Amino acid sequence: MLVLLINSKRFSFIALILLVSFTLIFLYGVIFKEISDCGCYGKISLLNTSPLLTISRNVFLIILSLVVFLNYPKVKSVINPFKCTLILIVIIIASFLSGLTLNSKGSNFSNYNQNSNYLKNITSTKLSDYIKTSKDSTYLIFIFTYGCSSCWNAIENVKTYESSKKVDKVYGLAAGDASQKKFVMDYLKPNFEIIDLEPKVALELVREFPSAYYVQNDTIKFIMEKDIYSPYTFDMYWSMKNDAHK
Hints:
The structure is a single chain. By secondary structure, the chain is of the alpha/beta class. The protein has two domains: about 10-100, no CATH class; about 115-245, Glutaredoxin. The chain is about 45% helix and about 15% strand. It has seven helices and five strands. α1 (about 10-30) runs antiparallel to α2.
């Protein structure tokens, strides 16, 4: 609306309110919750910026919105057919790009094989640099960050894999600072071994956090990304996956 000069005063005011609100919320998260990603671009990590750059960008946009609000007269523009068509095209493109960031699991098993580079013998992956496995045992390798709330929820499911005899051993590979680790250890009390990694190294092992690799006979057989199932749900999906292969 602003680019096409449609009701500029009204929409610059709306933009101003939204930008100020989101900036204050993000600033609170950065200062008090150790949040470093505004989440503006979903899974398109290439576009993510540092908190300082994000806040600076927002301040610049707030100034621009304020300038437009103060200087444009309060008039109601008549939208011509060309502008309506252009707005519709922009909405369609934006909706399509937003859909690219969606990671819907559902029950379609084509999604579970996306990271096929890791569906192979563990010794031929970087995981073997940190985990030593035995052919006659089963493992769950859980990769997460200490500051990720989705990872906190996943930990409760991961804690039950060994006790339910679903696997022989659970390994955790985690990245994060000391205060985040202390929170996880004190409040969530994981019952599995955790190996600390540098964030850069952890990102080389997964596409998103949390992720888990089910290892059988030294081979990665099943991958969970973002949603880490309970042993019961894992059994259901594991059976369905095997039936699909048959």
